[in-house]
Amino acid sequence: MLKEIKSEIYHLLHPKLTFLLTSIDKNGKPNVMTCAWATPVSDEPPIVIVCVSKEHHTTKLIRQTKEFVINIPTKKLLPAIWICGKSSGRDTDKFTKAKLEIINGKKVKAPLIKNCIGYIECRLWKAVDAGECYAFFGKVLSASVDDRYFKKGQWTEKSEIPLHLAGSKIVYFK
Ligand SMILES: Cc1cc2nc3c(=O)[nH]c(=O)nc-3n(C[C@H](O)[C@H](O)[C@H](O)COP(=O)(O)O)c2cc1C
Question: Which residues, in sequence order, are CB contacts of 144 under 8 Å at separation 6+?
Answer without folding.
Answer: 106, 118, 119
